[in-house]
Write a structure and sequence with these properties.
Elements (H helix, E strand, L loop, with lengths): L1 H11 L5 E15 L2 E15 L7 H67 L5 H36 L14
Antiparallel strand pairs: 1-2
Helix pairs in contact: 1-2, 2-3
C-alpha cells in the first residue's frame, strides 16, 4: 500500500514544474619557465522545465496511479476481512471441537460406569459374555473418538496460531476438557 501511494505521488510530480541545478568548480595550475600560473573556474547552472499537458496525458497518468493506490487499499482491506473471517471461523470450530471433547468425556465416563455394572452382572451370572464384550467395545470406541477429537482440536489450535501469526505455544490455551 505504501509503495502504491509512493508511485501515485511520483506520477503526480509530473504536474508541477521541474527544477534542476548544477554547481561545478575546477582549478588549473601550469608552470612555464619557473613561473606558476593558476586559474580557477566556477560554474553554476539552474534549469526549469514544465510539460504543458495539452491532451491530458500527464493528468491521466497521475489519476491512474491514484486509482491504483486506492485499489491497493481495497485489496488490503479485503485481505484483512478475509483473515478476520478465517480467524473467527477457526475459533468457533475450535470451541465446537472442545465441546465435542467434553461430551465424549462425559459419555466415556457414563459408559465406563455401565461397564462396571455389566461386569458385576456378568460375574453374578445375570448376563452373558457377549453383553460384556459389547460394552467394552463401546468404551474403547469412545476413547478412540475422544483421541481423534483431541487431535482435531490441536490441528485447529495450530491453524489459529498460524492465522494470528504466533507460535502455537504462545497461543492462550483453551482447556481441553481432560
Amino acid at each position: 500500500l505504501d509503495q502504491a501511494r509512493a508511485l501515485a505521488r511520483k506520477a503526480g510530480a509530473d504536474m508541477v514544474p521541474q527544477l534542476s541545478g548544477e554547481v561545478g568548480g575546477s582549478s588549473t595550475r601550469s608552470r612555464i619557465n619557473s613561473q606558476t600560473d593558476s586559474a580557477q573556474d566556477y560554474s553554476l547552472g539552474l534549469a526549469a522545465s514544465y510539460e504543458v499537458d495539452l491532451w491530458g496525458r500527464v493528468r491521466s497518468i497521475s489519476e491512474a496511479a491514484e486509482l491504483d493506490a486506492q485499489a491497493s487499499a481495497e485489496y488490503l482491506q479485503t485481505a484483512a476481512l478475509t483473515l478476520s473471517a478465517q480467524v473467527a471461523t477457526t475459533w468457533f470450530q475450535l470451541l465446537d471441537q472442545r465441546g465435542q471433547i467434553e461430551i465424549l468425556k462425559q459419555q466415556q465416563h457414563t459408559y465406563e460406569q455401565a461397564l462396571e455394572l455389566i461386569s458385576l452382572q456378568f460375574r453374578t451370572g445375570q448376563i452373558g459374555i457377549a453383553d460384556l464384550l459389547q460394552q467394552r467395545q463401546v468404551v474403547e470406541s469412545r476413547r478412540g473418538e475422544r483421541a481423534l477429537a483431541t487431535g482435531r482440536a490441536q490441528v485447529l489450535q495450530n491453524q489459529l496460531a498460524v492465522l494470528l501469526g504466533v507460535a502455537p505455544d504462545q497461543l492462550p490455551q483453551i482447556p481441553a476438557g481432560d
